[in-house]
Amino acid sequence: MISMRAWSFSIGRLFGVEIRIHTFFLLLLGLAISYSSVSGSTGTRGFALWLILMLLPTGGLQQYATPEATEHAATPEIGKRLGIVGPIANLFFGLFLGAVILTVSPEINLLERPWLTPSHLIRGLVWINLLLAAVNLLPAAPLDGGRIFRGEFARNHGLLKGTRAAAGLGQIIGVLLAIAGCILPNMWLIMIGAFVFIGAHMDDSNIMLSSEHDPVVMRDVMLTDYSTLSASDTLEEALLRSVHTLQDVFPVVRGSNLVGAVSRQGIVEALQAEGNGYVQGVMTKSFQVAQPDDSLVKTLRRIMAGKGAQLVPIMDGNRIVGIITPQNLAHSIGLLSARRRLLQQEEPQD
Question: Residue 232: which residues within 8 A CB-CB, separation 6 or more?
């Protein structure tokens, strides 16, 4: 979840819901338009092909209404049911769409190659659904087949080992798909292999978040080297101080008391709109705090159940000892995951 957000950017809001697009889809857009140009089609058809390719199995993020529902969905039996629904739906939709095309336009040869081309988008939509059904059944996390494999493996070895096995197998399958794409050659296999590998790697990096035996707490990932702003600072002073740090969101204090938070972007926008003023006039006073020993997973669930947060101050009594921001969280989790793997490798084997 964190990595997906870190590599994505907002393109606006619809009905109050933020819409974000992953950076890799921009690479996919360039690939689709380039392929369209090389094959003699227009850029518009290349863009349409990109929209169809958005259905490709690049991994997914499932979110549930309550923590109880999340835990229920993580059980092997429910995970198996959820994993089989997607491929079946894609298979039947692809077959149904193919049957409609053969009935309405029998002159279209669905078996003609290439199956996926900007010149025949409807035929491509049929094959992309069939491809999606087939690839999603591969036992590679975070694909549906990976969820099924994880559930079956977890029956005998536990959920943590099942998740690690699915993530590791997913990375292997991703590499094999990319190699097969280079040998054939087939750029779509290369692209699918890359996405599967990236998704499996992200899944592997987030395994420790759900570990019951070694849970991640806020002190493990909080930023301890940070800057604060005073509520009485002017916006120009605050902007000047923000130039000398990579920090994007700042705690605002009055004396030794935490009274708010303000982002670098908020400072810039306030200066452009109203000119110089004081930080206390643009800071947000609505934020949630956590303690150093609070569970990271539970804290994130609590935050996301509300309106989210740009900054989570970590408080030890009345003293702020660290902060969590979306920008530093993914980086901290990745480094912590690497450190724990190294420690596991150094442990003596029984």
Answer: 254, 278, 279, 280
Domains in the chain with CATH codes: 2-210 (no CATH), 218-334 (3.10.580.10)
DSSP helix, strand, coil percent of the chain (3-state; round to 5)? 60, 15, 30
Pairing of strands 8-14, 17-22: antiparallel
> Residue 335: in which H helix or E strand, if any?
helix 326-346
Alpha carbon distances (Å) from 153 to 80, 165, 316:
11, 8, 41
Residues 43/37, Cβ–Cβ less than 8 Å: yes
- Positions of the chain with pLDDT under 50: 1-4, 57-61, 63, 212-213, 350
pTM score, two decimals?
Answer: 0.53
Residues 6+ apart with CB under 8 A from 22: 4, 7, 8, 58
| Phi/psi of residue 285, nearest 5 degrees | -105, 0
Question: What is the spatial distance between Cα 174 and Cα 168, in angstroms, rounded to a whole number?
Answer: 10
